[in-house]
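Late entry, written up from scratch paper. The run itself happened at the end of the previous shift, but nothing got recorded in the book at the time, so transcribing now.
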Amino acid sequence: MNANSHGYTEADVERFIPEPAKAAHRSPFERDRARILHSSALRRLGAKTQVLGLGSGDFVRTRLTHSLEVAQVGRELGKALGCSPDIVDAACLAHDLGHPPFGHNGERALDKVSRDIGGFEGNAQTLRLLTRLEPKTFDPATGRSVGLNLTRASLDAAVKYPWREPAAPMRPDGTPTRKFGVYEDDLPVFDWLRQGAPGTQQSLEAQVMDVSDDIAYSVHDVEDSIVYRAVQLSTLRDPGQVAAVIEHTRQWYGGGDEEALSAALSRLQAFPWWSERYDGTRASLAALKDMTSQIIGRFAQAIISATQAEHGDEPLTRHRASIVVPQDTLDEILILKGIAVHFLMAPRETSPTYAKQRRVLKELVISLADRGPDAMEPQFAADYREASDDAARLRVAVDQVASLTDTSAYNWHHKYCVQA
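Output as recorded:
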């Protein structure tokens, strides 16, 4: 591949472990995308919760369908902006690989049980999967797995939070984000992939992935809330409901100007495609799907226009530029997130099922760490045997539990924690 002809350098296409040259009909970035697409970690996302649990309906979104939707948005956005659509596609497919069973609820449970060894963060776990846990390539010098051995540019694009936990920035309201992109024992490959990167700035492709994720879940979570929870957007004509949504938005996301969020909702409500009534008929579902499509197109076009106005024809790759997201677009994305929080996410926080999910994962980690390799899948059993101390063995137990699907987490808990 002549990397420079595409706005990428030879350093961008390097792999952590050099590989022999392969047939030229596919670029290195196309190979990266294919490796993620064929990974077992991606397949597992089909049985992991996105927002609504897998028992909520036959066609509820999963982490896998969400990732495919993010990839579709990201690929088109990246192509329009001039960066490699294959890098963006790969990063979008990979962005949730590290998420454990039960969505963000499971993430919080694993973080709590592993606080003494550096905690758990889904994005740091994604990097760990891509560079260590997902089998594809081994380092001939050490005999250890280096994961999928993606190019530097693709790995950098998959890092949503390019910093260690101690360097995590503060949210707008002054509280810590608790978001980070790498565990301490994965720093060697992180330092390698970040060579040449300015500080904690995301690569442009990571920015495209990040905003595509925001666009997809802000819109689709509202859609799922309407279809599966019978939420009617017509209730948002009530000023009291709007105020409650805005309050939840500010609580969950650590900021947002009240007047700007209210204005953002009013702008969306003014469009003829804003669908306020849903009754389950094909006509109402078509109207809802049209609204979803219109909003995604609105957000994407605003970002493309603003970014092109800022950068003109210069190469929009890696760390040579940043995308521009207009403030009105950010506000509209945020208020959609807030709608899903208010009607769906916040009410379930105190539900017995939610508490049970956290208990299941915590007890399972503790049980596996105690039982050791006989209770683990072969690859994790090998990691456990090679672990040098109790902290490393606990991390292996966390890796094993994080890899499970929702159903297998319950099954394993029944086998190792209930029947024991």
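The chain is about 60% helix and 0% strand.
(Scratch paper discarded after transcription.)
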